[in-house]
Amino acid sequence: MAAESSPSSSPSVASAIDFLSLCHRLKTTKREGWVRRQVENPESIADHMYRMGLMALISADIPDINRDKCVKMAIVHDIAEAIVGDITPSDGIPKHEKNRREREALEHMCKLLGGGPRAKEIADLWMEYEENSTPEAKIVKDFDKVEMILQALEYENEQGKDLEEFFQSTAGKFQTELGKAWASEIASRRRK
């Protein structure tokens, strides 16, 4: 059993609750792509991150991949959206501006958390994901796309919508064998 964190390495109770209260927005902010396509009861940002975390958790062991790190990365990769919202390509905001806004939001959230090792871990995981700089980041980037097309398939089946654009936006963009395999399985189920 792991030892409980010492007070000096943990955020204060107040800063932890402040941070978690801000993260509540992730549970209530709907994913913008689904809203724009008039999907009924669209998933929230937190819904999306949660299933990505499950993807990392259930994925088979892959040599040289830290699965626990992937789970953590999946649950923080969109955390800045608690402040900036779900910015999509159709918003017309240049990528560098989106990155600037998200980085600023992340810095604010880490300060709210009181800095320290937990805030640094969140910031480091987020940056690693954004920079696509490690094998873990690459697989989590693939989980991001896989989760979106799986959700699109579910909305097509449940609501009779044509969400082809979501599948097209990911075509040829998977970086890992696992991502490619899962995307292929989703595509085959869509053709049935």
Automatic annotation (TrEMBL):
<dbReference type="InterPro" id="IPR003607">
    <property type="entry name" value="HD/PDEase_dom"/>
</dbReference>
<comment type="function">
    <text>Catalyzes the dephosphorylation of the nucleoside 5'-monophosphates deoxyadenosine monophosphate (dAMP), deoxycytidine monophosphate (dCMP), deoxyguanosine monophosphate (dGMP) and deoxythymidine monophosphate (dTMP).</text>
</comment>
<comment type="similarity">
    <text>Belongs to the HDDC2 family.</text>
</comment>
<feature type="domain" description="HD">
    <location>
        <begin position="45"/>
        <end position="149"/>
    </location>
</feature>
<dbReference type="InterPro" id="IPR006674">
    <property type="entry name" value="HD_domain"/>
</dbReference>
<dbReference type="InterPro" id="IPR039356">
    <property type="entry name" value="YfbR/HDDC2"/>
</dbReference>
<dbReference type="GO" id="GO:0046872">
    <property type="term" value="F:metal ion binding"/>
</dbReference>
<dbReference type="Pfam" id="PF13023">
    <property type="entry name" value="HD_3"/>
</dbReference>
<dbReference type="GO" id="GO:0002953">
    <property type="term" value="F:5'-deoxynucleotidase activity"/>
</dbReference>
<comment type="subunit">
    <text>Homodimer.</text>
</comment>
<keyword id="KW-0479">Metal-binding</keyword>
<protein>
    <recommendedName>
        <fullName>5'-deoxynucleotidase</fullName>
        <ecNumber>3.1.3.89</ecNumber>
    </recommendedName>
</protein>
<keyword id="KW-0378">Hydrolase</keyword>
